Amino acid sequence: LQVRQPENLAYTTQTTLSVDDTMGIIEALRARxxxxxxxxxxxxxxxxxxRQDAVRDLARQCDLVLVVGSPNxxxxxxxxxxxxxDGVESYLIDNAGEIDPAWIVGKQHxxxxxxxxxxxxxxxxxxxxxxxxxxxxxxxxxGE
Length: 144
Description:
Layout: H1 19-32, H2 47-59, E1 64-68, H3 74-85, E2 89-93, E3 110-114, H4 120-132
Parallel strand pairs: 1-2, 1-3
């Protein structure tokens, strides 16, 4: 890649990608174009990173993680992927109707989280469906 004025380069990243997800690309760009500008640290939204850190904590406490979100959402897909990467069965669901009752058979602790754009009404619907399927108690994990 040849650039006529590398001192005029800048980058942005998709807001639904975590800092961890973009760091390798940013480092490679900065190695090639040291003068390249990016967003100031106080301009970066850490909501996606915080959500991903939280799902890792959640996965350590569960034997199933359900992620409410659209299959087209990179953020929601990533949350489910992170839980699976930590060795926990995980499913991305768009709504309560997508829950397969077989998923919860024998499960003691079911984690529930949602992608950034999933409305609370969908999360509430999933909670209601889990109760219908026999979930006895709900506890909320406090974030940092």
